[in-house]
Each structure stands twice: as structure tokens, then as C-alpha cells.
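Researcher: Please translate sequence to C-alpha cells.
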Amino acid sequence: LFYFCIDFWSTYLATPFWYNAALALIKPLYKSKIKKRAESTEQFQQECLERFGPFQPVKNRQAIWFHVVSVGETNAAQPLIEHYLKAGHPVLVTNTTKTGQARAKSLFLKVPYLNLFQAVYLPADQKPLVRQFFALYQPKLLALVETELWPNLIAQAGQSQVPCILINARLSEKSAKGYAKVSSLTQPMLQGLDQLLAQDRATAERFIQLGAAPSVTQVVGSIKFDIHAPESFVKQAAQLKQEWSLAGRKIITIASTHAPEEQKLLSAFKPYLDAQPELLCIVVPRHPERFDEVFAVAQSLNLNTTRRSTGQSIEADTQVYLADSMGEMWLWYALSNACFVGGSLNEPGGGHNILEPIALHVPTVLGKNYFNFQTIVDEFVQANAVKVVEDAEQAAAVLMILLEDTEQANTLNESAQKIMQLNTGSLKKHIQVIDAYL
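Model: Translation complete:
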């Protein structure tokens, strides 16, 4: 009876009862959502296999396990993952979203990493599933990227004696208030971390106030500043410029957009697009399930629109190019003369990563709602290295100025490059911490 009670506690009650009960209740709804968004029965079955067991066959045990939510976190972790793959370490990447997994595979599931790399969905955070996953994969270390905290996942890492590190950690004031409302869940979760590597002092202090141990919390900056564009996309962009005769075009990319940003931005750009045949707008929606919706928006505005998904090229009369593909964001930025980073005009917004276009020396504009990247963006704003706008009309006007005024665009870019150079080095600090556990 004693051992039965111990096993029951570790399996079901190590985290709050209400949390595990809630997971059990929403599991059917979660499966229903997966089925609804799946493009085929096979895809639905494959995702359920990875999320609810019995899981994919293991390619490598004792791998370094990185858990990243979606595309942005995958891109942030890219230089760190590449470092360990190049060093010959097997790497397991788990994602929460379909787009995140597609991005991970496009970056790393290739020669020479084929035998070292594996990407699967993170299992649902139910204790039996997480315990089974740990037993199957037997990871050497678990690195959670940014703010991806799961109570049973962290608890099981401790029980399996697998070091658990929160890397490139960020936490907005708004998110901190949310975590504070469930302190019975948050405090044990944070106390289960072996290291917490924060992007900035404000993030570190918020985590400590929520229960993280100061002794394992340190500020090491953001590895996003150590990002670099894959050479393959730079070369592909140069090739497309020739094949599609883009040398004389003025190209703006509207990236990572959410509804209703496309409607507002394209409406604001329409007068410019109609008046200037050389102007081209590349639109990259954040979520693939909205591709058809965005295409319909462009058509409703009578803008000549072609699509990446149908294999169409950019023609001389193309006004809008819908980049309805996955894993090619670097390519569209590499083609751009200026860009707008979305998720920052809508409410509540939050913004997305501005460092990717800046790494390619692309003058960058974003909306005022960028709290998910507050510290990073504020540093660029203070140095006049990016432009922040209030609405879509102002975004269009500022982007057009940057296209026409080469001197202003160059000044903006030079200031941005100085910020990038000042902040490099976080990657090395992350590696030093991780290597200590390896």
C-alpha cells in the first residue's frame, strides 16, 4: 500500500490536482482541434501519435533536448542548436505548433545532420505521457526556450535527473501577472529549473518574484542577437532577383501578420501600388491556416496577386506576392528593400522578432504593440534604429519614405547594425552554461 501511494502521488499529484484534472477534461477538445486543422487523416494520426503516444521511434537517446514553441522560438534557438549539431551532439527538438515543427525540419533535417537530428511534437503535459516520453528518449539535458513552461514536464525532468534549463528567457509584465494568479503552479515549476538564463534584468526580476531561485538566475542577453541568415536563402534570393527580373522593383515585405493587419496594410498601400508599377508588396501571414483568407483580402482590393504555393513567379504586373509557404521567411527578407514586422498593429498584439530583417540589413518598421519584445525593441527605438508607427496608414507612409530616401534608410540601418554588434555574445554565455551540464 505504501509503494502504491508513492507511485500514485508521483504519477498524478506531484502537480496540483486541478491542473491535471483540467488537462484530462480538455484532452478530447484538443484532439478535436488537431483533427479540424489536419490536412489529411494520416496527418491527424501522426500528430496524435506524437502528442498522446506511443510516440515516434527514437533516433538517438541521450540527445540534447530543445523545446521551442513555434517559428520565432525556433529561429531564436537556431545558432545554439547548430552549434551542438556541428559539434556532433545528437539533438531532439520538440515543438508546440505545426509551423514551428516545419521550421525546425527545414533548418536542421538535412545533410550533414540527418543522423543527429529529430523533431517531434511535444507530448501533452499529462504526467503518464511525459514520464513515458522521458523513459523512451532518455535525454541528456532539457533546454526550454524563452517562456515555454510546462509543470509536469519540468517535474518529470527532476524525477528523471535530467538537468532542466530555461534559456533565452523572456517574460513580459503582462505574462508575469498571469503566472502570479496561479502561484501554486508557478512556484514549484520555477523552483524545478536548474538554471534560468534571462535576456534582461527586468525578466530576471519578474521570474524571481514569481519564485525562481536567485542563485540559478542570471542575465546573459538574447541569443537572437547572434542570429545570422542561412547562406542558402541569400543565394536563392539573388537567383530569384535574376529569374524574376526584380532588379528594378521596390520591394516591401509585410511579415508575420495577423488579422486584420493585412486588410489594413494592403488598403493603405493600394494607392502607392496603383501609382507605382515598380512597387511590390510581399505578404507573409503568420499562420498558414489564414493563407486563403489573406489571398481573398488582396483580391477584394483588386490588387494583382500571385501565390507561392501554386508555383507562380513574380511578374512585371504583380502588385502583391502572397508568400503562402513555410520556412522561407529569410528568403523574403533577403529580397526586401524595407519591411514591416507584424503582430504589432492589432490589439492586443505583442509583436514578432525584428532581428531577422535587421540581420539582413533591411530597414525595419513595426507597430506600437510590441510588448513581447519590449526590451529589445526599446533599445533600437532609443538609438533611432527602427521606426515605430501608430497605424497602417503611417506604416505605409514611413515605408515609402524609406524606399525613396536612401540616406535615411542607410542611417536607420547603420544604427541598427551598431545595436546588433553591441549585443552579440549571448550565444557564447549560453554554451558555457550548457556545457557545464554536458
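Researcher: Any highlights?
Model: The first helix runs from residue 2 to 13.
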